Amino acid sequence: MLLFTRNDELHEELKKRAAQVQTRFEDMNSVPNVKGILRLPGLPAIALELVRFLYDRKREHINDWAKESGIRIHDKARLGPQVVWLHKVPVGANRLLISVVIPKPSQDKKTEAATQQAVIPQQNELRSKVRVKRPIAEGLGAWSLLDLEVGDVIILEGNEELLIQSSKNDTIEARGICLLSAQHDTCLVEKGKGGWAMQ
Question: Residue 30, exposed/middle/buried by CB under 10 A (0-12, 13-18, 19+)?
């Protein structure tokens, strides 16, 4: 798992751009044979711009991390980029999920006005409490607690899982997280020799 730092100008720009990606529950579709996931059909232009900005500005950072971790990343995304709302995010073996947190879907028509005015949501609407499970041995995992906000970039490795912390009294919006994500195939190599695979 990798969570990019918030202490730089790039994070502020990511936060600003991510806050402009507005969605509505009514526009999202369920995923066949998968519970607890809604997906936005197609990718809004503003979301595509965010993806390009992220990969352009963070590509070298991702490469350095993957190199030291011994993870070879296939350049072309296996799945996505796509906008999804979900309760948990399991990542399969030999996969890598690169995600940026975006605002939770709206249930009313205020979304369009917010998009036009590029209004950044209030701070309490930006955060999601999550747990990330990392495998440490056969059948065992270690949990990390995180407080994610809009604009955060998190990378999950194969066999890791992100789970939303919520209670039965939470609103439907609070029970999930909205991500702009792309999944890449990976393979493990010697540490120091990972990074983006040359095509």
Answer: exposed
Listed residue (87, 101, 106) closest to 25, CA to CA: 106
- Domain hosting 101: range is 2-196
Structural domains in the chain (count): 1
What is the chain's pLDDT, residue by residue, as a tens digit (199 residues)?
888 878 778 899 999 999 999 999 999 999 888 778 899 999 999 999 999 999 999 999 999 999 999 999 999 999 999 999 998 888 999 999 999 999 999 876 554 444 444 444 444 455 788 888 887 655 666 778 888 999 999 999 999 999 887 656 555 555 789 999 999 999 999 999 999 997 5
Alpha carbons 102 and 84: distance in angstroms, whole number: 10
| CB contact at 8 A, 101 and 149 | yes
For residue 53, what are the contacts with CB-CB under 8 A and spacing of at least 6?
Answer: 13, 14, 17
CATH number assigned to the domain comprising residue 112: 2.60.120
Compute the distance between CA of residue 123 and CA of residue 42 in angstroms, rounded to an integer. Answer: 28
User: In sequence order, what are the residues at sequence separation of 6 or more whose Cβ sits closer than 8 angstroms to the Cβ of residue 78?
Assistant: 95, 183, 184, 185
Rounded CA-CA distance 57/70 in Å is: 22
Rounded to an integer, what distance in angstroms lies between the CA atom of residue 51 and that of residue 10?
14
